[in-house]
Amino acid sequence: MAEVTFAADESVYNLLDRDVIMERFRQLHASIIFSCVQTDDWADDSWVDMDGTPFYIIKLPYDTVKTMNKEQVRELMLNMLEKRLQQAA
Asked: Rounded distance, CA 77 to CA 71, Å?
């Protein structure tokens, strides 16, 4: 099962939806971290830990997310994760 966590500013945190990602990617053995903060310190990244679990950091565009509703953010999260997984394959 995909493990999904967030690093997000309080102003957008409630727009992020862990459940839709976990449901759609329930067969995926990976840890996914969605970052949505108003800083350039976070960047997309990926690695594999010592037990073989892949980790993906996906940086959501803060200014864009802030203008979206929850359904739009869900679609953005799904699209960005699918794109990242295709790149990793």
From this structure: 10
User: Coil, strand, or helix at residue 87?
Assistant: helix
Give the span between the Cα atoms of 8 and 20, in whole angstroms: 17
pLDDT digits (tens, 9 = 90+) for 18-61: 999 999 998 999 999 999 999 877 788 899 999 999 999 999 99
- Predicted TM-score of the model (pTM): 0.89
Q: Give percent of the chain above pLDDT 90.
A: 85
> What are the domain boundaries of the chain?
3-88
How far apart CA 89 and CA 87 sit, in angstroms, is 6
CB contact set of 30 (below 8 Å; sequence gap of 6+): 2, 3, 53, 54, 55, 56
- The residues, any chain, with a CB within 8 Å of residue 50's CB and separated by 6 or more, are none
Residue 80 has a pLDDT of 96
